[in-house]
Amino acid sequence: MIAILDYDAGNIKSVEKAMLLLGQDVTVTRKRETILKADKVILPGVGAFGDAMGKIRQYGLYEVIHEVVEQGTPFLGICLGLQLLFERSEESPGEEGLGILKGEILRIPDTPGLKIPHMGWNSLEFRNNGRLFAGLPQESYVYFVHSYYLKAADEGIVTAVTEYGTQIHASVEQDNIFACQFHPEKSSDVGIRILQNFISI
User: Fold this and answer.
1) Cα torsion for 138, 139, 140, 142, to the nearest 10°?
2) Which residues have a catalytic role annotated?
3) What value does the CA radius of gyration of the chain take, rounded to a whole number of Å?
4) Among 49, 95, 110, 121, which has the minimal tally of Cβ within 10 Å of its Cβ?
5) Residue 174 and residue 177: Cα distance in Å, rounded?
6) What is the DSSP letter of 128?
7) For the whole model, what pTM was predicted?
């Protein structure tokens, strides 16, 4: 069973729908016992960093997420879910993230000709043999919607980068933790392959 964490964020339904299409048994939940028993856990989300961390604490998910990671359950963060795994974000000064991975979330710099938020398809450059991208060619295109981006402290965990006014760490992997700034559930066949790779881990 795959548990999708419910903390009132946007985009949870589309991730659930993608997993159901892939034939998975999916539960959208914030119940600790259900989450800790799951074979895999997904933290999706669209919204503001500070608001999301407030909800995660309110629903007791802060501790549960740390427990899931510590027990070795495969864990996937998507979009805001990636950002929340890190220490802090310029979007919400003074608000601490989950701090499971080291790094910070920065605002995409203003660049002539580039709109913020970044909405649309960008190609990925794969690095460090990320398991999510097994079987996919370099320069595969995926769909992004974001105004803030990850700068990981350790580039050794970065499995994909893209360019949009700056180099963006688009995906990371460390042990049982996986995360994507882009939306695999909205990234056509490439995204389906990424989700299938996560399911098969």
Assistant:
1) 140
2) 79, 183, 185
3) 15
4) 110
5) 5
6) T
7) 0.97
The residues, any chain, with a CB within 8 Å of residue 127's CB and separated by 6 or more, are 158, 159, 160, 161
DSSP of 47-115: S-HHHHHHHHHHTTHHHHHHHHHHTT--EEEETHHHHHTSSEETTSTT-----SS-EEEEEPPP-TT--
Spatial distance between the Cα atoms of 155 and 47, rounded to a whole number of angstroms: 26
The total of structural domains in the chain comes to 1
Is-contact 140 123, C-beta < 8 A? yes
How is residue 83 written in tokens? 């950002």
Contact 130, 74 (CB under 8 A): no
Range of the domain at 154: 2-199
Question: Per-residue confidence of the chain (201 residues) as pLDDT tens digits?
Answer: 999 999 998 889 999 999 999 999 999 999 999 999 999 999 999 999 999 999 999 999 999 999 999 999 999 999 999 999 999 999 999 999 999 999 999 999 999 999 999 999 999 999 999 999 999 999 999 999 999 999 999 999 999 999 999 999 999 999 999 999 999 999 999 999 999 999 999
Look up the CATH number of the domain holding residue 60: 3.40.50.880
**Under 8 Å between Cβ of 172 and 121:** no
Phi, psi values for residue 145, rounded to 5°: -145, 100
Tell me how far apart the 2 most distant CA atoms of the chain are, in Å. 49
